[in-house]
Amino acid sequence: MTTKGNFGFIAIVTTLLVTIMLSSCSHDKYLYSEEKVEQNLNEKYAAAFEKAFGKVGSNVDWGFSSKKANTRALTRAAGTYASYKGNLQPTITFPTDCNASNFLNAVPAGVNRLPSWGGGAGNYYIDAETPSVSTYAGASTIYVTGTVDLSDSDTDANSPKFAPDYRSAIYLIEGATLKLGEVSAITLNVDAIYIAAGATLEASGLLKANNSTKIYNHGTIKVGTFETNVSGFLYNVGTLEAGNINIESNNSRIVNDGTITATNVTVKAAAIQNNAECNVTNTTKIQSTNSGWVNNGHWTTYDYAYIGGSENVINNCFLEVTHDFEMNISSAEGAFKIDAGCGVVTENFYGGRDSSSGAVSGPFKILMGENAVFKVEKTAQFECGRTGDSGYGIYGISPDGYAVFQAKDIVRDPSLASTNSHGAIIYGGNLYVSAETHFAQGDSGAGRTVIYAVDGFGIADNIYAAGFKSGKPNITIPETPCNPGFVGGSTPLYRVIAEDLSASEAGDFDFNDVVFDVVKAEGGKTTLRLICAGGVLPLRVMGIEVHGLFGETTPNEKGEYKMYNTGAGPNVDPVEFEITGEYTTPEQIKNIKIEVYKNGSWMELQATTGEAACKILVDDTFVPVPERRNIANENKKFTDYVQGTFVDEFWWK
Fold first, then answer.
1. What are phi and psi of 270, to 5 degrees?
2. Cα angle: 513, vertex 515, 516; to 5 degrees
3. 195-241: per-residue pLDDT in tens?
């Protein structure tokens, strides 16, 4: 072969090789890829999911975690309870916080120090050099900066060391401290005091907000006793530390959006509203028919005494009594009201007792909304002393669901029990009573009994205790920051609900394409109960096609199945089946593989934390969503749950 021929041959071979390589590359580009198809479908599904429900919160694990909502820190600010608290409204009003511009970090320019002898109406600042404060003849504005200690030698009632004109406004600048002496603290009477974050108001004894004195605290108040009088009030966003807190007159108020720590709290004819944290180491006492106690947060106390009978004693979140809760009211309008989903935990409860007078019997009334829980860890003693038509007793007032009163032992006062006195307790409405022991029914003659049942309450059906109905009521109420929860006799089963990647095409997210319960796990096997098969595509759970379990083993000519138990096809009984492996915890159940056959391949349905989910873990109290209905329309809290703002796992309850 000539040289010219050699070059020609090489050129031909090279051309062929390049052509083959280009052809190969071109072919690879258009090769079918199951992974690519699945990725595209998942991306399309995720986009449709977030369009329907919003961006998925990074904390949303779709139920596949054993963590509980109450593992979060116990100290919470106002607003933390918003997703859980009730909304019963009192007939009285409470003040709101002032504008944030009133909390200052510096004395405004051009303001002069208050002269040592005092001054007329004007703007002044006081500091460590100020020996006393006196203004007159009109409203003054006084700025407190640094540490102003007026606590020594303040004993002359005719000449308090802190005596601004009653029309004055006092501003404690960030980092400032104002210490008041005995007389000044008792006679405090100004228009308003604004305490900035990092500032402190102190008094070793009694500090009284007299007349119409308004105190807005974003810092700290430290006093021996704090008292509101006439129409004075405190709005606390910061910290109040006191030995005793007394809310005295009809129009005086305390509102807490921060933290209150006290030895005793006594509510007389005035009112207090707690929206965050209140900790009382001794006694909380509500003692007037005009009292107002509204708890929208977490109130903890050693003893709780509700004496008097105001209609404005309302628990919209969580009351924790570490010792005794006693109740003896003198007003027919009075009641301890617990809104739906809220609760009380106490060591002991004494219905009818007033330890301050020595009474052991008297009227008491508890009104409980749906899923409210009153839990007595030890003994509940009832001595109402009233007949069934008196309107007193314990009631579940919701027509839509039950409340639970739970105790270890429900007893009577031994002396009254020995005389068979009537009317120890009246139960009414949609209420379950659950206890280990409960005193027996008795007959005092003339139609008088020991236990009265009214408004649909049945002694034979609604009391679960020795000598009554065995076991526990079949109701489970989730534990939340506002509710201690209740686990009834029938523990709910885990339920998995799934969507088969077709929602973005069909326009619905009903999560009924497969629904199954986890019944039991033993001997290396787990029993599942198939509830719904609402998708038309082939779908299998751990390799088992679900439509076949309902008897349809072959799809139609389009490759589609009927939809079972969703309102758009046959209704059949649930079917149990076994899978290999034991799956009992949420984390393990997440590993039960669910696949849909779509676009020529089997694709697994995922539930990744912080991403759009195809499967969700609930329990068997969840009602499957009918076909072509949106899960968020049937479960109003679902969207908040998806976005991570409703952190309780039980969004369907």
1. -105, -155
2. 145
3. 999 999 999 999 999 999 999 999 999 999 999 999 999 999 999 99
Task: Give me the pLDDT at residue 485, please.
Answer: 93
Helix or strand (DSSP H, E) at 255: strand 253-256
Q: What is the DSSP string of 45-61?
A: HHHHHHHHH-SPPTT--
pLDDT of residue 504: 60
| pLDDT tens-place string over residues 291-325 | 899 999 999 999 999 998 899 999 999 999 999 99
The total number of residues written for the chain in this structure: 653
CA–CA separation, 463 and 615 (whole Å): 39
List CB contacts of 559: < 8 A, sequence separation 6 or more. Answer: 537, 538
Give me the amino acid identity at 148: V
Write out the two tokens for 139. 């409203």
CA-closest candidate to residue 434, choices 454, 408, 456, 452: 408
CA–CA dist 392, 329 (Å, integer): 10
Q: Give the integer Cα–Cα distance in Å for 65 and 58.
A: 14
Residue 80 confidence (pLDDT) above 70: no
Distance of CA 557 to the CA centre of its chain: 52
Give the count of alpha carbons within 13 A of 226, CB side only: 29
Q: Which helix (DSSP H) or strand (DSSP E) does residue 265 occupy?
A: strand 259-267
Q: Does residue 2 have a pLDDT over 60? A: no
Residue by residue, DSSP assigns 479-536 as -BTTB--EE-SSPPPEEEEE--S-HHHHT-----SEEEEEEEEETTEEEEEEEEB--S
φ and ψ of 370, to 5 deg: -60, 135
Task: Choose the weakest-confidence range: 88-92, 349-353, 641-645.
Answer: 641-645
State residue 35's pLDDT score.
Answer: 62
Letter for the amino acid at 500? D
Query: Looking at this protein, which amino acid is placed at residue 506?
Result: A
* pLDDT at residue 3 is higher than 80: no
By CB neighbour count within 10 A (0-12 exposed, 13-18 middle, 19+ buried), where does 13 fall?
exposed
Q: What is the pLDDT of residue 543?
A: 96
Give bridge partners of residue 505 from the DSSP assignment: none
- What does the block give as tokens for 371? 């899923």
Cα 434 from Cα 409, distance rounded (Å): 9
Cα–Cα dist 291/311, whole Å: 8
Identify which of 70, 62, 45, 85 has the alpha carbon closest to the alpha carbon of residue 642. Answer: 62
Q: Which residue has the higher pLDDT, 32 or 184?
A: 184
How does residue 27 score in pLDDT terms, banded at 50, 70 and 90?
Answer: very low
Residues 6+ apart with CB under 8 A from 595: 539, 540, 602, 603, 604, 605
Give the model's confidence band at 23: pLDDT under 50 very low, under 70 low, under 90 confident, else very high: very low
Single-letter amino acid code for the residue at 190: V
The answer to whether 294 touches 314, Cβ cutoff 8 Å, is yes
Distances (CA, A) of 72 to 75, 480, 564, 646: 9, 11, 40, 14
Q: How far apart are CA 342 and CA 45, in angstroms?
A: 37
Which among 494, 495, 628, 622 is positioned nearest to 566, based on CA atoms? Answer: 628
Distances (CA, A) of 305 to 394, 420, 476: 17, 27, 29
Q: Could you tell me the two tokens for 246?
A: 């007394």
Which pLDDT score is estimated for 256?
98
Which of 178, 168, 175, 200 is CA-nearest to residue 105? 175
- Tokens coding 94: 């409470």
From 394, 447, 390, 395, select the one nearest 422 (Cα to Cα): 447
Q: How far is CA 243 from CA 21, 227, 265, 279, 395, in A?
A: 88, 11, 9, 11, 36
